[in-house]
Write a structure and sequence with these properties.
Blueprint (H helix, E strand, L loop, with lengths): L8 H5 L4 H22 L4 H20 L12 H21 L8 H17 L10
Helix pairs in contact: 2-3, 3-4, 4-5
């Protein structure tokens, strides 16, 4: 029998499970809130964008039907759509808020790139196991 895992990209690239994704989400929300506190007195636009991103990630996490979700009104696949929107907000936010060339923008560009990586490596078809 031939090993097809090498030729099947989904077999080796979809490595983040729903529980792992939940842990990442709550960590990302905390990081955005922490950056918002840090930037609050230094760069109001960056702080506002950080708080908006943190609230978006936290709200989606609490609402998603996965381990760590509380309300469970958003499907895991629906959560993916929110992640795409959040990555866009993080990546385009510095442009929209007028600080694309400020040092604070690098934080958002890095977060957007990381989010794209997480979206690309999450197994969205995995069944979320409930505790």
């Amino acid at each position: 029998m031939a090993d097809t895992s090498i030729s099947d990209p989904s077999a080796s690239t979809r490595t983040i499970s729903p529980p792992q994704h939940a842990v990442l989400d709550y960590g990302v929300a905390a990081a955005f809130f922490a950056f918002g506190v840090y930037a609050r007195s230094r760069h109001r636009s960056a702080a506002a964008l950080a708080f908006a991103n943190g609230a978006m990630v936290l709200g989606m996490s609490l609402s998603t039907d996965y381990p760590g979700g509380v309300l469970r009104i958003l499907s895991f696949r629906g959560h993916r759509t929110g992640d795409i929107a959040q990555a866009a907000l993080a990546g385009l936010g510095p442009i929209l808020f007028g600080f694309a060339n400020d040092p604070e923008a690098k934080y958002f560009y890095g977060q957007a790139a990381t989010e794209i990586g997480v979206i690309g490596t999450t197994d969205w078809d995995a069944a979320a196991s409930h505790p």
